[in-house]
Design a protein that fits this description.
Elements (H helix, E strand, L loop, with lengths): L1 H28 L25 E5 L2 E4 L5 E6 L6 E2 L4 E5 L4 H49 L4 H47 L2 E3 L4 E6 L6 E2 L6 E4 L4 E5 L14 E4 L9 E4 L10
Antiparallel strand pairs: 1-10, 2-9, 3-5, 3-8, 4-7, 5-6, 7-9, 11-12
């Protein structure tokens, strides 16, 4: 009898406790629970809305470095990711027979200079001959007027003067032609030297190599890129945002940039330009 009474008492007590726990749970966490209120002091501050987007890193200035004439790539001195300075050697083209052409134009220019010197000497000789012929013509003309020599002798000396003048004109023409040949060959030599220097592909500005479009032994045409690089100071982030949530966005606002390759580093930035695109 006592055992049955004690068991009934334990069950009733357990049921009461369970009911109390259930009521407490409903009162604290259920729909009948009271709402929590957080108390905070009132303060005046500016709201700073944030926009988030995923963008692509691009370069505003990029360079395609290649030869000005068709040729074969001799060597490439840089690799992708290398930081280069302005004037640094990027690649070099095979000169093929350009060195022999430079030697030939140099020899032709030396020969043209010799021709100029020869023509100048002939001009000097023709000037001397003309002066002597002019002096003889004046003397014999004076003697002819006085009757000491015949008119045929006077006419012969006058003809010698005309011949000396013609030789002088021919010598001057030869000198002018020799000088023109020398100038033409000098221009050809300068062009060949410029073409030879263009075989060395140099960096036009400070930048980072982004691609090697040709390897040693490859044949490229004029204007084809061998190395591509971008200016390191022209990198920016191109980002697309929802126009409905971008009200108030303007140039100059600060920005925070997190690169996928450096997730733990926040880089400072600012808005440089805005471009609105119409949607259909």
């Amino acid at each position: 009898m006592n055992f049955s009474f004690n068991r009934r008492t334990i069950l009733i007590t357990a049921a009461v406790l369970l009911l109390a726990v259930l009521v407490l749970f409903v009162a604290r966490s259920g729909p009948l629970a009271s709402m929590r209120v957080t108390v905070a002091p009132v303060a005046r501050a500016d709201l700073a809305p944030l926009l988030f987007g995923i963008g692509v890193v691009e370069a505003r200035r990029s360079y395609l470095v290649g030869p000005t004439a068709a040729g074969r790539v001799r060597r490439v001195a840089v690799d992708v990711g290398d930081v280069v300075k302005a004037g640094q050697l990027l690649a070099e083209m095979d000169p093929v027979d350009l060195d022999q052409r430079l030697a030939a134009t140099g020899a032709a220019a030396s020969r043209a200079q010799s021709a100029v010197d020869t023509a100048a000497a002939q001009v000097a000789d023709s000037v001397a001959r003309r002066e002597v012929a002019a002096a003889n013509a004046r003397r014999y003309d004076d003697l002819g007027r006085k009757g000491f020599v015949s008119s045929s002798v006077t006419e012969g000396k006058a003809q010698e003067l005309k011949s000396a003048a013609a030789q002088f004109a021919a010598a001057e023409a030869a000198l002018a032609g020799a000088r023109q040949d020398r100038a033409r060959l000098a221009a050809e030599q300068a062009g060949a030297q410029q073409q030879r220097s263009n075989l060395r592909l140099l960096a036009p500005a400070d930048g980072v190599v982004t691609a090697r479009d040709a390897e040693p032994g490859s044949t490229v045409v004029a204007g084809q890129a061998v190395v591509r690089l971008v200016a390191a100071d022209s990198l920016w982030l191109k980002l697309r945002l929802d126009q409905h949530r971008s009200a108030g966005l303007q140039v100059g606002l600060p920005a925070e940039i997190v690169l996928r390759s450096r997730p733990g580093q926040v880089l400072p930035g600012k808005v440089l330009a805005l471009k609105c695109s119409a949607t259909a």
